[in-house]
Amino acid sequence: MASNTQGSAAARPQPQSIMGFLSRYHEFVGHNASTHEFVRDLLVYAEAAEGNFVEDRSRLRKQMEDLTLDLKGALKSKRELQSRWYDLKDRLNFLSQGQDAVKDRNAYILVLIDGNGLLFREHFIKEGAEGGRMAAEELHEATLKKFSYEEDVEVVIKVVASVANFSHAFKQGGYVDKEAKVLDFIAGFNQFRASFDFVDVGVDKEQVALKIRDSTRFHLRNYNCKHVLLGISHEASHAPFLSGLIRDDRTKQRVTILEGLPTAQEILDTGIVITSFRTIFRTDRLREKPYRVRVAVPSLPIPAGPSKVPPPSAASISTVPSEGSPNSPSVPTAPSGARPNLSYASVIQKASPPPQVAAAIPPKKASAPARPAAPTKKPAPKWNPGPRGLDAPLVIDQGVLEKLKKRRDNQKLCNNHFLRGPCTKGKDCCFEHNYKPSQAEKNAIAYLARMNPCTNGQNCELDNCIYGHHCPTVVNGVCMHPNCRFRTEEHPPGTRFKFPRNYSHTSDQD
Fold first, then answer.
1. HSE (CB half, 13 Å, CA atoms) of 26?
2. Which of 165, 400, 439, 476 is deepest in the core (most CB within 10 A)?
């Protein structure tokens, strides 16, 4: 017990002085002030943090409201765009279907032919207008048979040529007796269908190639043009143009060459597809000269009285094959002692091509020599301008001529139409066709046409050439034309000119 009491007394604090408590009180007050300062700073910080929080919250709320509005606007725009997109999609499908329908609505096959190189067979030409229609019909059917399409396809055919050279070649070769037959063929070809045209480009053959190439480019850009058939196999200069078409994926399957004459090697090298219509077009060139029969008979003195000429023996009759026909059959000779039935008509009928026959007929002694008839000499012309000679004279009515000169622009009469037959340009011609001129007016038209010099001059071989081969306005040794286009040598020697010469077109192209 005593020990516990001692322990309790030791744990109890010892009484101190009042100053000790004061010191401790001051410590307590210091700590308390520090606590109050800490709590105050904490409250100030909390107040500032709360203010920032409220501001940020207001800002974020405003942003959220703005974003909400933006989202609503975006959703609305999206719905509108979707609606518009579906509408445009429907319209695009409609237009695509319509475009496909348009592509096939007026589908056509274009046939472009160089008429001076891809030549129609002569039996068409000989039939004139009817032959032209037959050739057009057969070419139309052959084209449709070659290119078969499910939809209806029109055939557009354009033959481009120098009609003057075209007609002259057939006449020069002896296939037609006059060039008017060729012009009739062209007219019949043009009349077969509205889409069939035989186009005359004049005497410059380069224009044929240019027109064919330009037309090909134009039509290949047209979706309605299903195929282009080109009759240019003979002309090697087209090879670079064809190579360009073959390299283009959009055109290489739509171009075919129509062969007549053997295809040029340069065109074969392009690898282009080639076809032919051998029943319509020639595969060989026209002969340049016709076959002729010559009967050579030696000159004999003419007896004064009647005489009998003995028939020639078989040995005296010989056959000579004509030019360009080495395999011409010979004319059968008459048997010994028989009278041969030899005549010009029989030679023509039996020989194919006709042979040249030289018949030597021995003369019989005449009782009296005949007096040779005095040869009649034609008066020589005062001036010969060249191989062709002077153009046929025309009787001109000055009043009619002046009346025709007053016509202007498309009221002018078409020279080709009224002087050489139907104009091959048809409705595309800018001159007057619907008119019936009198003979005096035709003479005046011919006179006006002759004021234009022929490009071939005196070397022109066209029988129906309407242009001048020398100046037609020379009167009493004076050229009366104010703007004469003929060269000086195309006037009679010593011609004087009433008006000053315009050497811009009279120099030697002079």
1. 5
2. 400
Instruction: Please state whether beta strands 496-497 and 255-259 pair in parallel, antiparallel, or not at all (unpaired).
Output: unpaired
- Tens of pLDDT, residues 389-417: 889 889 989 899 988 888 888 888 998 88
**483 contacts: CB under 8 Å, gap ≥ 6:** 499, 502
What contacts 230, CB < 8 A, 6 or more positions away?
Answer: 112, 113, 212, 216, 238, 242, 255, 256, 257, 258
Burial label, 73 (beta-carbon count in 10 A; 0-12, 13-18, 19+): exposed
Tell me whether the omega of the peptide bond preceding residue 353 falls within 30 degrees of 0, making it cis.
Answer: yes
- Distance of alpha carbon 258 from alpha carbon 192, whole angstroms: 21
**CA–CA separation, 288 vs 139, rounded Å?**
26
Distance (Å) of CA 150 to CA 105, 107, 217: 12, 11, 25
- Other C-beta atoms closer than 10 Å to the C-beta of 340 total 18
Locate 467 and state its tokens: 């242009």
SS3 212: helix
φ/ψ region of 477 (left if φ > 0, alpha if ψ in -120 to 50, else beta) reads left
Distances (CA, A) of 492 to 447, 465, 469: 18, 21, 12
d(CA 493, CA 383): 8
Contact between residue 322 and residue 291 where contact means Cβ atoms under 8 Å apart: yes
Residue 47: half-sphere exposure toward Cβ, Cα within 13 Å = 6
Residues 205 and 165: beta-carbon distance below 8 Å: yes
Provide mean pLDDT across the span 483-489.
Answer: 88
Confidence (pTM): 0.45
The burial of 188, by beta-carbon neighbours within 10 Å (0-12 exposed, 13-18 middle, 19 or more buried), is given as buried
Top pLDDT among 229 and 101 is at: 229
Q: Tell me the backbone φ, ψ of residue 149, rounded to 5 degrees.
A: -125, 150
Which pair of tokens denotes residue 222? 């047209």
Residue 142: closest CA among 157, 122, 160, 131: 157
Number of Cα atoms under 13 Å in the Cβ half of residue 55? 6
- Which amino acid type is present at position 300? L
Distance from C-alpha of 482 to C-alpha of 178, rounded to nearest angstrom: 36
In terms of Cβ atoms closer than 10 Å to its own Cβ (0-12, 13-18, 19+), residue 507 is: exposed
Q: Which residue has the higher pLDDT, 343 or 188?
A: 188
pLDDT value of residue 160? 94
Residue 388 tokens, joined = 């062709």
Structure tokens, 481: 């034309």
Antiparallel, parallel or unpaired: β 356-359 and 317-320: antiparallel
Contact yes or no for 322/288 (Cβ under 8 A): no
Q: Are 416 and 465 in contact, with CB atoms under 8 Å apart?
A: no
